[in-house]
Amino acid sequence: MASAFIIVGDTFRNKVTELLEKTDSCLPERLREELEETLGKPEPAMMSFSTARTLKKYLQANGHPFYLHELLEDSSLHLPEIVKPPRNPELVARLERIKARLANEEYSRITRNVNTQAISRNGTLADFGREVRSVKAVVATVFNFLVTVVAAFACSYMGSQYLFTDTGARVISAVIVASVVGLAELYVLVRTMEGELGEP
């Protein structure tokens, strides 16, 4: 925060010197000392805000023909350098631990859906076992379908001998029964597959 003016030009020095040399000016003793001290400093000299306020009040009270802003037109604010306190090493270490923990949590959150076994080129025995079980299930389903259709054909062919004496009629009736059983088996198979695919 600004604490004082820096006097950089001759305007202030000339006008304050002129004010101090006037014998009829009734400057307060303390203000006179502060102004003389300011003029006695090497450039750039600094003047505190309290001295500036006192000088302004004096100029206003005595009706002088120049104002404070005219005195300080070639001055600037003195901004002291901010000294940062040293950081607590325990606090710094704690912040580093917290940052590392948060980074690990973020990394785990990002990579939780990554399966390293799926990325490997050769695969694992578990993947091979799943594929074998899948193939076995498909083979068993097809074999079951064929056995059911053939058994339905054979049963209807053998059973139709009591109804028909002609072989052609027996074959046609066996084909019709085997087709109906095959369609029913396909319907059940499709419904089962839809149920398995619909599971989460």
TrEMBL record:
Its main location: endoplasmic reticulum. It comes from the Eukaryota. InterPro entries: ATPase_Vma12. Keywords: Endoplasmic reticulum, Membrane, Transmembrane, Transmembrane helix. GO terms for biological process: vacuolar proton-transporting V-type ATPase complex assembly. It is found in: Endoplasmic reticulum membrane. This is Transmembrane protein 199. It is a multi-pass membrane protein. The chain crosses the membrane at residues 137-159, 171-190. GO terms for cellular component: endoplasmic reticulum membrane. It holds the Pfam family Vma12.
